[in-house]
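Here is the promised in-class demo. Please do not try to memorize the tokens; focus on the logic of going from shape to residues.
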């Protein structure tokens, strides 16, 4: 039974890994705006009402795990775009948020559910001023 569970999980990990690779390539070659537009299209237009903590946790764990093994750069923006698409496809009404820290300049992307960051420490997120008017 153990090997059956692993093989059932492997395609999910590989699909997430492939999405991270595709997101990385899209950001590098198509730019931010076009990559976000693609993510919005893939995620679907109508968010659902699924707020299951188990669903959110499983998706975020898979995204972080796949990002860890990705040989390229898969940091907050790539991870957030992939998590946004995967969670919205599962009916979780998440939003993608961007924030900046003016000095020294840093930017960060994260996912929110009901106005609360997912898989982010509140004290870390509080260092960033959300970009006004940007939330998908």
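The designed amino acids, position by position:
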């Amino acid at each position: 039974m153990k090997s059956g569970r692993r093989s059932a999980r492997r395609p999910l990990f590989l699909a997430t890994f492939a999405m991270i690779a595709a997101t990385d390539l899209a950001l590098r070659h198509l730019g931010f705006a076009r990559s976000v537009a693609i993510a919005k299209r893939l995620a679907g237009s109508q968010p659902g009402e699924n707020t299951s903590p188990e669903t959110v946790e499983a998706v975020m764990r898979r995204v972080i795990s796949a990002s860890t093994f990705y040989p390229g750069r898969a940091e907050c923006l790539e991870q957030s775009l992939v998590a946004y698409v995967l969670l919205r496809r599962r009916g979780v009404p998440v939003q993608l948020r961007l924030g900046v820290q003016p000095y020294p300049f840093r930017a960060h992307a994260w996912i929110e559910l009901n106005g609360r960051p997912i898989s982010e420490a509140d004290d870390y997120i509080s260092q960033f001023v959300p970009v006004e008017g940007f939330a998908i």
